[in-house]
Write a structure and sequence with these properties.
With about 170 residues, the protein is α/β, with parallel strands linked by helices. Helices cover about 30% and strands about 25% of the residues. Strands 3-1-2-4-5-6-7 form a seven-stranded mixed sheet. Strand 1 and strand 2 form a beta hairpin. The chain is globular. The chain starts with a strand and ends in an 8-residue tail after the last helix.
Amino acid sequence: MKEEIKIAGIIKESIVDGPGIRLVIFTQGCVQNCIGCHNPETHSFSGGYYVEIDEIVDMVNKNPLLDGITLSGGEPFLQAKACAILANRIKKIGLNIVTYTGYTFEEIIREMEINKSWKKLIFATDILIDGRFDIDRKNLLLKFRGSENQRIIDIKKSLEDNKIVIADI
């Protein structure tokens, strides 16, 4: 059986969704419904379309300029199993993974003990941009995020140090 992920769309090259040149996958479906969300068309679970993970990996393999992929949304953790499979396949190529989520790092750590797919996705992620978009804290000058409550977290260092380590990017 082919592994699939439900997406709203893909941007083949982006420089605003993480460091370097990235292929961005916008997952379909989100329960956060943040006021002022940049991607409200990704909220509905009935929208979007399925794409085979192999097809995305092929896209990445065909572009030698890519530094990594970005999993955005929608909410990637609502498709954690498929996102983790994709992320691990991309890591085998030698590229890095940025994951955007409306959940906080602390919420993910709590949930991953119950939901093994969340654990697989967080361990496959290099940089996590966490937290709901907060329109009252919107700041267009921020790097790679939309509101001041969101953090850019180095996952490997955070898991090793057992505390949040902000990424130096």
